[in-house]
Amino acid sequence: MRLATIVAAALAALVLGATAPGCLWDRDDEPLSGKICAIPNTGVVEQCVDASEGPASAWSKAEADGELPIFMWARWSGRVAPDELIANEAELGAWFDTIDRVVSYVRDEKKHAESLRATLHGELGKLLRLIRDSQEEALQAEPIHAADNFNEAMTGKASAEREPLAAAIAADKLAMAAVQAVLDRARDEGAPLQSRYAGAAARFAAYRATEAAETAAYAALSAQASRSAIDELDGVEQAVLAAARGASRAPNELAAEAMTLSAELQAFAVSFEEAIAPHKEFLATHGAVVPDMTSGALRSLSAMLGYAQRRVARSDATATALLGGIALRRQALVALEADDGAREASARSRLRRASEVFSEGARARVAALSAAPPMSERLGLPLLAERCGELVALVQMRPLCEAAPSSWREAGCAVLRGRFDAAEAELRTGLPQKIAAGLAALREKGMGAAELDAAQARLDAGDVKGAAIAYDAAVRGAEGT
């Protein structure tokens, strides 16, 4: 029974999170109430104060001397040896009370999880060895009442902690308190971000509700431009520009806010991940899930940003189209106000320019088809999708060039007519033969059959363009490009 009581004493000291002094101290200068000591993570000098001053005094000195976390512990009075402490109910009770004050201060007032962890585990081994050695000496000595006195001092405080299972439960409680401290700190730090996110969401909702009005405003400006005389078009242009600037201002401000808040939320997530990382194993052991505090807000902010960017792009495109239409209307009104000769000259000028543009395009198309198709870099196989597209476009232009020779397209059609028959023949036979030869070469090189079969199926179905696209994709896939 005496041995069981002494082991219970050791377990009780473990559960209470007591810390050992690490070495014996001068008994002459030690106050009767004991001391509270602290040392920062980067410190080398213990900062000790009289226990009557409280843990805050030791913490402040240690905090000024180095970086967090801070290790704290309580010493009993140096005037009492360990074996005397076990036998002295008053001294033992005072020491336990001081330990409770230290642990409560770090956990409840400072709420610093890493310092709590350091406090609970820093000097614990030395304390247990010191108590164990004193107890072994007491067991070997003539029977005394030290163990009985120790047991009485622990009544109502640690008697339920004698079994290892109960000790484990108490340790879990301390770990849960550390986790709760991390979560509480994250909640406090995240509260301002949550408030800002709510404000951004409200502003986004208000901005999104203006889309219909913005569209209606552009429609009204379009109708106004179509009715305006030539001297009124400048005012309509300025109104369109003002509408475009106004449509961009609010989303640009919202986008800047969303990007700033996203960056701060990501930094907050990294900080929380670092703080909770030491406790993940404990949470996993008990089936608890680490809370996700930011991903939902980040996805929402990304969606807001995407909507704002797309809407600004639509607004800019609408304004650009309106300005282009106004320019055309101005030209038409100028032409109407001119005499017949001026209108005819303007029409001839436009036809001449259109004929030149069409002719330049026809010559560029013929030059492109005169060149050989590009070859792949490693396998040396022709890439045919682009050439197939050019051939199809050329064949589709044939009806345009079969119109009356007086058409403004005549100069360009004269260049194209000699290529129509050759293009149709290449689409019917030449290009399919090249695709088939390329597919056979790829099969010989061990290319995957699925992609080649898909290209062959398109070719067999007469879809030359689709077969060319699938064939080019197979060639690039074989080369890893």
In words, what does this structure look like?
By secondary structure, the chain is mainly alpha-helical. It has 18 helices and three strands. It has helices at about 1-15, 55-65, 80-85, 90-110, 115-120, 125-140, 145-155, 165-210, 210-225, 235-275, 280-285, 295-335, 340-370, 385-395, 400, 410-445, 450-460, 465-480; strands at about 35-40, 45-50, 70-75. The protein has a three-stranded antiparallel β-sheet with strand order 2-1-3. The model is unreliable at about 1-30, about 140-150 and about 155-165 (pLDDT under 50).
By DSSP, the count of extended strands is 3
Task: Characterize the overall form.
Answer: elongated
Order of helix and strand elements from N to C terminus: HEEHEHHHHHHHHHHHHHHHH
- % residues in beta strands: under 5%
Largest sheet: 3 strands, antiparallel
Strands in their spatial order, largest beta sheet: 2-1-3
How many helical elements?
18
Task: Give a topology summary.
Blueprint: H1 2-15, E1 35-40, E2 47-50, H2 55-65, E3 70-75, H3 82-87, H4 89-110, H5 113-121, H6 124-140, H7 146-153, H8 164-208, H9 211-227, H10 233-276, H11 280-285, H12 295-337, H13 340-370, H14 385-396, H15 398-401, H16 410-444, H17 449-460, H18 464-479
